[in-house]
Amino acid sequence: MMSVPVKAFTFDYYPNVPISKTDRRFESKVIEQAILQFQHKVKNKEPGWLFGNCFSTTLNTTVTFHNQGGRPDTYMITGDIDAMWFRDSSAQVWPCISFIPKDGRLKGLIASVINRKTAYILKYPYANAFYYDPAKVGKWAHDLTDMQAGIHGNKQA
Known about the structure:
This protein is of the alpha+beta class. It is 38% helix and 14% strand. It has helices spanning 29-41, 45-62, 86-93, 104-123; strands spanning 63-68, 71-76, 84-85, 127-130, 151-154. The strands form two sheets. It has a three-stranded antiparallel β-sheet with strand order 3-4-5. The protein has a two-stranded antiparallel sheet with strand order 1-2.
C-alpha cells in the first residue's frame, strides 16, 4: 500500500486579528517592533502570523494594568476564565522579560504581576487562581476546600 502525504488544511492568506487602539489594555511599541522583525525574517508566513497574533493579543486583551497605592498593579486573565492563575500569568509575561531593558512599561508590567502574586500568596498560599474582585465568590465556594471570597481555585482540603 502506498501512502500519499496530505496537508490537513492551509490558508492562502493569514487573517490578522488586530485589536483597536481604544480597546487595547496594554501596548508595547518594543513588542510590536519585535513582532514585525520576526515576521520579516521568517520565510514561512504562517509562523509569523501566529506569533504576531498571539504575542500582541496576550498583552492587548488579558491585562488590567494600573497603579494601586503608588505601586504598579497588574491583573492578568488567561482569556477564557476571569481569574488570574499563577502558572498561566507567569507563562504570559515570560516572553516579555528579554524586552525589559528597552521598555520601562514592560518592566512595570512584570513587576506589577509579581506585586499582585505576592499579595495573593499572602492572602491565601494554597490557592492557585484569584478573582480581580476580592469579594467575588466562585462556583466552588462550598466544596471541600477553604474557599474564601476572591479565590477561584484552591488546592488544599
